[in-house]
Automatic annotation (TrEMBL):
InterPro entries: SCO1/SenC, Thioredoxin-like_sf, Thioredoxin_domain. GO terms for molecular function: metal ion binding. The keyword Glycoprotein does not apply. Residues 1-23 form the signal peptide. Disulfide bonds join 74-78. Transmembrane segments: none annotated. This is Thioredoxin domain-containing protein.
Length: 201
């Protein structure tokens, strides 16, 4: 029976995808047992962490990285996604922070200052040794989101309507898979993180 895959292997050509992305690579099904496809080099960025320090994607080279886009004033899907990631963080044990890292980038940088993000992270039990919450200049943040296929638009009431994509980047800095929405399979998510780590051994 066909269903919308929980793991969305997306072509990002419409939003400035990496040049190496191909339709063949992006057409694998969620149930395939083969290695996850390579979607091209993950777009680099430099933003500011919850500790007021610059953080770049290249800082994570050698690790598997999950990149999510959220904002702290969100009352529905963002807290759900962050809670899901926190539960997977616990299941990763000692590999979290040493070999696997999470990055959450705000889509509301005007309100999500480093201090606001730090409080948000603590409220969800995020282990900040392996989880960075990033903000920055709004134009820069917007461009980073666009490169990852995330479009964000702020409403008059302050809510931010945005694409919900969580991207996995391998230790070589290659974008491998994107999860669409918030109701994806957390075991699959964890297994994909571990499989990318195993590939690098």
């Amino acid at each position: 029976m066909s269903r919308w895959p929980t793991r969305a292997l997306l072509l990002l050509a419409l939003v400035a995808a990496p040049a190496h992305t191909s339709a063949h690579e992006a057409s694998a099904h969620a149930g395939d047992s083969e290695r996850l496809p390579m979607m091209g080099a993950a777009p680099d960025f430099t933003l500011i962490s919850q500790d007021h320090k610059p953080v770049s994607l290249r800082d994570f080279r050698g690790k598997v990285v999950a990149i999510a886009f959220i904002y702290t004033y969100c009352t529905d899907v963002c807290p759900m996604l962050t809670a899901h990631m926190a539960s997977v963080q616990e299941k990763l044990g000692s590999t979290f922070g040493s070999k696997i890292d999470f990055v959450s980038i705000t889509v509301d940088p005007e309100r999500d200052t480093p201090d606001v993000l730090k409080e948000y992270a603590q409220n969800f039990g995020a282990d900040l040794k392996g989880w960075s919450f990033l903000t920055g200049d709004p134009a820069v943040v917007h461009e980073v989101g666009r490169k990852y296929g995330v479009i964000a638009k702020k409403a008059a009431n302050g809510d931010v309507d945005h694409t919900l994509l969580t991207s996995l980047v391998d230790p070589n800095g290659i974008l491998r898979v994107q999860y669409l929405g918030v109701r994806f399979d957390l075991e699959e998510f964890r297994d994909d993180l571990v499989s990318l780590l195993d590939e690098s051994k």
